[in-house]
């Protein structure tokens, strides 16, 4: 750990491949098979179309994250970008909403992982596996981000191998007359008999697979050459993940063009048994468990860093949330807190926990796009033809898609999200003494020198 005055700061150890692998690990590429059946039923077989729509929305949003991380290269992500570019009060509310994503997503991840473990070892109760996930991932994240990065390299590669094998078996099956019997078709992308609303409802679910590309921005204070590597990692994570999801759903659809399954939650496992040798079923199960484990490490790490940013800024109690471990240089209190919150998984279902997540994610994504417009186009007056495209048109497209996906969430998700936002508003009123004062100023980070001129080069002290 480094110190500048009385301020604790992170060490810069993460390179481009570390950051990209963290993003991909958070995405957990194998999750495309975990929710394949649900998306297939929702879209009536237009799975790849749903993923293509979600990729478009996430790509434009990823571009906006790239712009904002260059303007404000500090931990905090959507919370920081909205607060500094639009309003500290609104920034607080976005940060409060995005905590549903960063803090509660480990719970959903560990619930899914525990269910697969339970399928493999039915004699052991699911709660035991949930506790195991919490203990192991919390320990890894406390020890240090470098250890987590090394673990993620192995886990992501294993996932990609399993996905590659599933795709190969699906293609082989189609070539032997199973499924459609042909590899060329637009049916996974478009079906004139399927209403567009079904596809967008599927896209809202499919976006769950992309959650994590934005988490890369929370490691900006630990990244080597962050102004270059963070934006690259964000885009690489989004595009690579999106292509994997589209190819995986396309080949799976071609091997099994229907959308009716015995159990939608295990649809991909059902298809795997049809197109692959029996041994692959075990390999597939192991791959799903590895995916959840890797994603849990990244999700917990990024959630802890969001709370650290808010704690350092005194938005949350600094003595609890805004400190780093002297020994490990990690936000140990926040890591433990996310682990404790995840104990709620013992009483909740995957559906309930993901309802929180989607509301927070789409809210954050929408306001990051809006932040680009305000910071660059309105305040920065970047209005040349190129800048208008980059800082007005593209983020407007991204924000529009995010709001459309937000409105396509089910009523339970919207209700839970509004209740959470209400609690946040009450806390904000208390924090600002009835809006008479501004929320605590969001710090730039002592290891960053940030200029207000958007044309100036941002110097990062290494």
UniProtKB/TrEMBL annotation:
<feature type="transmembrane region" description="Helical">
    <location>
        <begin position="412"/>
        <end position="432"/>
    </location>
</feature>
<keyword id="KW-0812">Transmembrane</keyword>
<feature type="transmembrane region" description="Helical">
    <location>
        <begin position="21"/>
        <end position="39"/>
    </location>
</feature>
<feature type="transmembrane region" description="Helical">
    <location>
        <begin position="151"/>
        <end position="174"/>
    </location>
</feature>
<keyword id="KW-1133">Transmembrane helix</keyword>
<feature type="transmembrane region" description="Helical">
    <location>
        <begin position="124"/>
        <end position="144"/>
    </location>
</feature>
<feature type="transmembrane region" description="Helical">
    <location>
        <begin position="389"/>
        <end position="406"/>
    </location>
</feature>
<keyword id="KW-0472">Membrane</keyword>
<dbReference type="Pfam" id="PF00324">
    <property type="entry name" value="AA_permease"/>
</dbReference>
<feature type="domain" description="Amino acid permease/ SLC12A">
    <location>
        <begin position="33"/>
        <end position="399"/>
    </location>
</feature>
<protein>
    <submittedName>
        <fullName>Amino acid permease</fullName>
    </submittedName>
</protein>
<dbReference type="GO" id="GO:0016020">
    <property type="term" value="C:membrane"/>
</dbReference>
<dbReference type="InterPro" id="IPR050367">
    <property type="entry name" value="APC_superfamily"/>
</dbReference>
<feature type="transmembrane region" description="Helical">
    <location>
        <begin position="332"/>
        <end position="350"/>
    </location>
</feature>
<feature type="transmembrane region" description="Helical">
    <location>
        <begin position="51"/>
        <end position="69"/>
    </location>
</feature>
<feature type="transmembrane region" description="Helical">
    <location>
        <begin position="90"/>
        <end position="112"/>
    </location>
</feature>
<feature type="transmembrane region" description="Helical">
    <location>
        <begin position="356"/>
        <end position="377"/>
    </location>
</feature>
<dbReference type="GO" id="GO:0055085">
    <property type="term" value="P:transmembrane transport"/>
</dbReference>
<feature type="transmembrane region" description="Helical">
    <location>
        <begin position="275"/>
        <end position="297"/>
    </location>
</feature>
<feature type="transmembrane region" description="Helical">
    <location>
        <begin position="233"/>
        <end position="255"/>
    </location>
</feature>
<feature type="transmembrane region" description="Helical">
    <location>
        <begin position="194"/>
        <end position="213"/>
    </location>
</feature>
<dbReference type="InterPro" id="IPR004841">
    <property type="entry name" value="AA-permease/SLC12A_dom"/>
</dbReference>
């Amino acid at each position: 750990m480094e110190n500048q005055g009385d301020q604790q700061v992170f060490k810069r150890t993460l390179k481009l491949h570390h950051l990209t692998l963290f993003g991909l690990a958070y995405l957990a590429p194998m999750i495309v098979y975990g929710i394949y059946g649900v998306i297939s039923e929702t879209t009536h077989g237009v799975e790849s179309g749903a993923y293509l729509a979600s990729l478009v929305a996430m790509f434009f949003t990823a571009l906006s994250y790239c712009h904002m991380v260059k303007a404000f290269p500090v931990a905090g992500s959507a919370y920081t970008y909205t607060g500094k570019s639009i309003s500290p009060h609104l920034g607080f509310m976005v940060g409060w909403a995005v905590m549903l994503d960063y803090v509660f997503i480990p719970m959903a991840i560990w619930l899914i992982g525990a269910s697969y473990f339970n399928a493999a070892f039915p004699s052991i109760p699911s709660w035991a596996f949930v506790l195991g996930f919490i203990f192991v991932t919390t320990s890894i994240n406390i020890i240090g981000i470098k250890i987590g990065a090394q673990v993620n390299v192995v886990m992501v590669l294993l996932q990609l191998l399993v996905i590659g094998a599933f795709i190969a078996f699906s293609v082989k099956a189609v070539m032997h007359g199973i499924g459609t019997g042909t590899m060329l078709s637009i049916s996974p992308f478009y079906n004139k008999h399927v209403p567009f609303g079904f596809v967008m409802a599927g896209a809202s679910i499919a976006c769950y697979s992309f959650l994590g590309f934005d988490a890369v921005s929370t490691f900006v204070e630990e990244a080597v050459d962050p102004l270059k590597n963070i934006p690259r990692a964000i885009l690489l994570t989004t595009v690579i993940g999106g292509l994997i999801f589209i190819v995986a759903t396309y080949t799976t659809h071609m091997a099994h063009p229907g959308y009716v399954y015995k159990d939608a939650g295990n649809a991909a496992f059902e298809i795997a048994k049809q197109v692959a040798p029996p041994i692959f079923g075990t390999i597939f199960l192991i791959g799903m468990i590895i995916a959840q484990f890797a994603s849990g490490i990244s999700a917990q790490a990024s959630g802890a860093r969001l709370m650290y940013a808010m704690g350092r800024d005194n938005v949350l109690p600094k003595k609890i949330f805004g400190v780093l471990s002297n020994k490990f240089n990690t936000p140990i209190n926040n890591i433990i807190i996310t682990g404790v919150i995840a104990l709620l998984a013992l009483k909740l279902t995957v559906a309930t926990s993901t309802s929180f997540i989607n509301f927070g994610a789409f809210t954050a994504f929408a306001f990051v796009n809006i932040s680009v417009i305000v910071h660059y186009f309105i305040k920065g007056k970047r209005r040349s033809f190129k800048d208008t495209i980059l800082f007005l048109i593209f983020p407007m497209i991204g924000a529009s898609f995010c709001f459309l996906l937000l409105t396509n969430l089910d009523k339970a998700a919207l209700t839970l999200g509004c209740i959470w936002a209400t609690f946040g508003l009450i806390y904000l009123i208390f924090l600002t003494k009835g809006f008479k004062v501004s929320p605590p100023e969001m710090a730039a980070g002592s290891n960053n020198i940030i200029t207000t001129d958007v044309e100036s080069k941002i110097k990062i002290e290494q």
